[in-house]
Amino acid sequence: MLSTDSSKRISFDRLICDEDLVIVYERHDRIKAVKVQKGSVFQNRFGVFKHSDWIGKPFGSKVLSNKGGFVFVLAPTPELWTLVLSHRTQILYLADISFVISYLEVVPGCVVLESGTGSGSLTTSLARAVAPSGHVHTFDFHEQRAALAREDFERNGMSSLITVTVRDIQGEGFPEEFCGAADSVFLDLPQPWLALPSVRRMLKQDGVLCSFSPCIEQVQRSCDVLQSGFTDIRTFEVLLRSYEVREERMMRTEGDQDGDLAGPFSRKRKQRIPHDANNGSGETTTTTTVMARPCREARGHTGYLTFARLACS
Amino acid sequence: MNPTDPTIHRVVSKTLSLFFPFSRLSLDPQQSSLGTQESGNPPMAQEGSVADLQASALAPAPPPPNPRATWEGCSVLLDINDGDRLVFARLSAAATLKIGNKKCSLAPLLGCAFGSLFRVESGPDGPYLARSSPCASVTSGNSMQESEKGDTMEDIRDNRLLIDNNTAQNLSSDDIEAMRREGATGDEIVEALIANSSTFEKKTVYSQEKYKRKKQKKYAPKVLLRRPSARSICETYFKKVPARIGFLRVDTLSLLLSMANVGPYSDILVVDMIGGIVTGAVAERLGGTGYLCSTYFGTAPYPSDIVRMFNFSSETRSRIVHMPFSDLFKSHENSVFPGAELNANAPSMLSESPKYENTVDLSSKPTVEEFDLMEEQSVDNMEASSSPAKNGTEHFVLNPCSSDASACRHESNASVADTPVNKGRQVPAETVALWKRNGFSSLIIAAPESDVGTIVQELLPLLAYSAPFVIYHQYLQPLATCMHKLQSSKMAISLQISEPWLREYQVLPSRTHPLMQMSSFGGYTLSGIRICNSGTVANIVTPK
C-alpha cells in the first residue's frame, strides 16, 4: 500500500499480479477490497468478473464482466482503505485523520502511540506518515480486534511499521519502555482522562497529544486533567462538506438574455433552438451551465479532537 | 478576516551566522555545543539560573525527526502574547527583535527547547528575554479556574456598579516607571496594578481574568518559542496574511496531503502558486526520500519563500526540484509513454532530458544572516508602533526576492556572496527519466490564478495509473467546471469536491461553547484518481 515497498509501487509498468490487494471501484459508494487470486471471481449486479482477466493489466484499468458490465481496479491507498475496511468499531474518516496527523506533527521517523487500535483506519495513515524509519505502537484491550487488525496490517504490507499489542491503556497506562520516547500520542478511549497521567510520562518534551471523543462531557473531563502538565490545549471539530456538480439546462426568453441569472461564472453553451410558431414572443435560448451545490446529506458529527502539548519542564 | 496593517520586521544579525549556513546540519553535536556556549554567555546580563536552564535543556542531542531544541541559524516561530504577534526569526547570537518598544536580543533562545516560554524583563543593561516556567503561568491561570470551578453559575457579582470614569486605577504611570527603575518584574507590576484598582474586586471572575491578561500583555509580554512545522507555519500565515497562501487553512492543507497520498518514497508532482506552503508541507512528509517535482508554467519558478521557514535537512531540500512544465511536457510528448503504450521501456529518454535547474537551495539563498520575517501586528497588539489600519488591503505583498531583501543584505554585511535563487543542484537525468517511465505517484495543484481545468488536463498524463490527485482552489466554480470536464474526458474517477469545516471550542468548567469567532472558509478541494483509459475499453457501453 505504501511507496516504501518499491516492488509494489504504482507506475506505468506496474501490472496487477496474483495475490495483489486491489480496490474494486464500482462507484463512489460501492468500493471493495479484493485479494487477487487466479481462479477466483468477483461478483456484483453487473455480472461475474474473473480475477485472471485483471492479472497483467495496469492498476486503474477498467475491467469487464461476463455481461459487459465494468468496474475499475485500483491500487490501494490509506484513503481507499478507510472506505473499504471491515468496521469492527466506529472508525475515523478522512477529515479527522488528516487533521490529526498534521496537528500531531507526525513526520517520517516519529514514534507514535495509539489506543485503541479499533479497525485500524487511523493506524494505516499514521504508518504512512512515520515511514520509513518511524513506528506506530498501537494498543487495544480487545484481543480478537487486535488480532484482526494485526492481520490487516500484515496483508497491507505495513507490519514493519506497526506493532499491535493487547493492553488496557485506561487501566494500565502505556508500557514503561516508551517513557519519554513518544513524539505524539493519540487516544480514542471512552475515558481518556484516565490515560492522561501515563501520556504525560510517554511524551517527549513539547510532544503533542490528541484525544478523540464523541461527547463533550468526555472533552470537559479530559481538559480538566490536561490543565496539569500540558499547555496549548485546544479542542476542534472538523467536518467535510461534499458538493455535487451538474450541468443543467436553463431556458429563458430573449428578453432575459442579458440578465444575470446564471451568474458571471457560468460557462454558457448557447444553442438557439427553433421556436414554436404558436408562441409569438420571439426566440428562446437554452443555456447549459455547470453548477455545484452541497450534497443534501452529510456527516454532522464525528467527534471532538482535543490537542495539547506537553509543557516544557 | 481582519485586514490589518502588516509591517515587515527583520531580525538582523551579524557575521557569526555566516559560518553556520541555515540547515539542519547545524544539528551535529559540534555546532550544538557551540550553541550551548553561546547561550551560556548571552550578551545580556542574566541570572545564572537562566543560563543553567538553557544548558540543561540542550544536553540531550535533538532526536532526528522533530528537533526538540533550537540551534544557531535555526528558524523559529515566536508567538508573542498568545498569538497577538507571530514572528518568524532565525536565531543567532546577534539577532534582535523589537517587542513593544523594547529591543531584545534573541541570544537567550539559542539551545532552548521548543515550547519554552520567555518574558520581557528589564535589567540594568536594558530589556532582555528571561526564561519563565510555563507551568507557573499555567498554574496561575489554573488557580483562577479552580477557584471558580463549580460556582460559575452562583457568581453573583455583575457589572451594575461599574462606572467608566477612568478613576479606578490609583497607580500613575510615573509610579509604574519608578517600580521599573527599582527592578520590579512585569508580574510584580501587574500585581501592583490589581492591588491599586478600586474596581477589581467587584469584577466577575471572567473580567478579573481578562483584566489580568490585558495588563500582563502590556507589562510582562510573553514570548513562546515554537518549532516551525507545516501546521504552525500554515496557521501563522492563515491568521496573519491569508492571501499569501491563497486562503488555505491548515485542515485543508492536511486534506491535500492525505488526498494525494503523500508519503515517503513517492514522486509527487506539485504546482504551488501559493508561496511554497504546499511544497514545504509535502517535503516535510517526504522526509528526505522520494521527490517533489514543483513544476511551473512560464520562465521562472513560482516564489516559494515559505519553504525557508522550515528547518529542512539538506537531504530534504535536495528532494525539492523545480522544473518548467514545458520541459516535462516536451519530453513527455516525445516519449512513447503514458496513455499510449504501456510496456514500452524507454531508456532513450535519458538523452532527451536537458539541464534542469532547481531551487533546492532556496533555504540557504538569503545568505542566512538577514532573515526577512513575515510579521504583523494584530489590532489589539499592545504598544504597536504602527497604527493598525482597519481598512488595510487584504493582499499583503511581501516579496523577499525583491529589493527589500537585498537592501537588508547590504545593510548587514556587504561582502556576503549572493546565491541566485534558481541555481542549485541539477536533477539527475536518470531521475527525470524515471519519472517519465513510471509516472508520478500523485499530483497536487494549488494555482488560484490559473485555469486549473487546463493545468490538470496537461498534467494528468504525467501521473501513473491509479494515482490520486487533488486540486485546491479558493473558489468553487473553477473546480466545478474542472470536475465536469474531467468527468466527460473519462481520465479520472472518484471525483469529489469537498470543503472542510473547522470549528474550535472553548472548554472551561460550565463555560464550554464554540469560539465566538471562527474562520468560515478554508478553501475547496477537488480530488480524484487517474485511470488507465486505453481506447478499447472506453467504447464499451455501460449497463447503466
From TrEMBL, chain A:
Q: Which InterPro entries match?
A: SAM-dependent_MTases_sf, TRM61_C, tRNA_MeTrfase_Gcd14
Mind listing the GO molecular function terms for this protein?
Answer: tRNA (adenine(58)-N1)-methyltransferase activity
Q: Which reaction does it catalyse?
A: adenosine(58) in tRNA + S-adenosyl-L-methionine = N(1)-methyladenosine(58) in tRNA + S-adenosyl-L-homocysteine + H(+)
Gene Ontology biological process terms from the UniProt entry: tRNA methylation
Keyword Lipid metabolism attached:
no
Q: Where in the cell is it found?
A: Nucleus
Q: Where does the protein principally reside? A: nucleus
Q: Which UniProt keywords apply?
A: Methyltransferase, Nucleus, S-adenosyl-L-methionine, Transferase, tRNA processing
Major enzyme class: transferase
Locate the residues binding S-adenosyl-L-methionine: S119, G120, S121, L122, D140, D168, D188
The residues covered by the tRNA (adenine(58)-N(1))-methyltransferase catalytic subunit TRM61 C-terminal domain are 69-309
| Region of interest called Disordered, as start-end residue ranges on this chain | 251-288
Q: Name one GO cellular component term.
A: nucleus
Q: Does the keyword Transferase apply?
A: yes
EC number, as in UniProt: 2.1.1.220
- Family the entry assigns: Belongs to the class I-like SAM-binding methyltransferase superfamily. TRM61 family.
Query: PANTHER family this protein is in?
Result: TRNA (ADENINE(58)-N(1))-METHYLTRANSFERASE (PTHR12133), TRNA (ADENINE(58)-N(1))-METHYLTRANSFERASE CATALYTIC SUBUNIT TRMT61A (PTHR12133:SF2)
State what protein this is by name.
tRNA (adenine(58)-N(1))-methyltransferase
Give the organism, scientific name. Answer: Canna indica
> What lineage is this protein's organism placed in?
Eukaryota, Viridiplantae, Streptophyta, Embryophyta, Tracheophyta
UniProtKB/TrEMBL annotation, chain B:
Where are the annotated coiled coils located?
Answer: none
Segments of skewed composition (Polar residues): 30-40
For this protein, the record's Pfam families field holds: Gcd10p
GO cellular component terms given for this protein: nucleus; tRNA (m1A) methyltransferase complex
For the keyword tRNA processing, the answer is: yes
Q: Which UniProt keywords apply?
A: Nucleus, tRNA processing
Lineage of producing organism: Eukaryota, Viridiplantae, Streptophyta, Embryophyta, Tracheophyta
Q: Which organism is it from?
A: Canna indica (Indian-shot)
Name of this chain's protein: tRNA (adenine(58)-N(1))-methyltransferase non-catalytic subunit TRM6
Query: Does this entry carry the keyword Nucleus?
Result: yes
Q: InterPro entries under this entry? A: TRM6
